[in-house]
Amino acid sequence: MKQEKTTKVRTQLDRGDWIEAAIDVLADQGTDGLRVEVLAKNFGVTKGSFYWHFKDRNDLLMAVLNTWKEGRIKDIIKQTTALPGKEQVQIYHVIQVYTLARNRKGIPIELAVRDWARRDAQAAAIVEEVDTWRLECTRKLFVACGLSEKEAKSRSLLLYAYVFGQSLMSYQHFDPDLDALRDWIADCIAGASKLPSGA
User: For residues 155 and 153, what is the distance between their CA atoms, to the nearest angstrom?
Assistant: First the structure.
């Protein structure tokens, strides 16, 4: 009975299954772990199954990058879309969402993709595209709050510098009231004291 179940799972493998498995490996082992033999062994299938869905390893690597890009951009749009007049509320939301540990796998994947981008032009171009989306979406929120282009760009960059910087640090024992520190930082980034009243 168990063997029948395994066979059934094997026949249902599709391109998306391979990509998701590759992303998991990327998070744990970086690009060096993205080997066809290892992925096939993890699935309990032959390499022939891989080549049914991909031309070669590079085809898989590009699929991983594009899947990561599409997922990030979709989430960025979702998190930065605000109702008119609620842009400042959305800025606070963005800061909170991206500083909470929503997805333990998210940061290792982000770091692995960025490490990959240091050595690969295609990966670097995709990381730049995602970062541009991030910065542009929050820039628009700040502009909608009444800030100048220059200040909106500065605060957008500051927001993501904080989000990514704090995710890499171990600061749990730095202060007994971390929530208050986070609130103060969010106020500084969101520019609460500088935004027009009612923004």
Answer: 6
Predicted local distance difference test score (pLDDT) of residue 2: 45
Neighbours of 34 (CB within 10 A): 20
Q: How far is CA 97 from CA 5, 34, 91, 102, in A?
A: 39, 30, 10, 7
What confidence score (pLDDT) does residue 192 get?
A: 67
Residue 129 lies in a domain: yes
Q: Evaluate whether residue 74 is within a structural domain.
A: yes
Query: Residue 26's CB: how many other CB atoms inside 10 A?
Result: 24
Q: Does some domain include residue 195? A: no
* Reported confidence tier of residue 10, pLDDT bands at 50, 70, 90: very low
* Planar angle of CA 132, 133, 134, nearest 5 degrees: 90
Q: Global pTM?
A: 0.85
Structural domain count, the chain: 1
Q: In CATH, what number is assigned to the domain containing residue 155?
A: 1.10.357.10
Assigned domain for 59 exists:
yes
The domain in which residue 50 lies consists of 2-190
In total, the chain counts a number of residues equal to: 199
Q: Which of 68, 185, 85 is nearest to 125 (CA)?
A: 68
Nearest Cα residue to 199 out of 64, 52, 41, 86: 86
CA 33 to chain centre: 20
DSSP category for residue 30: -
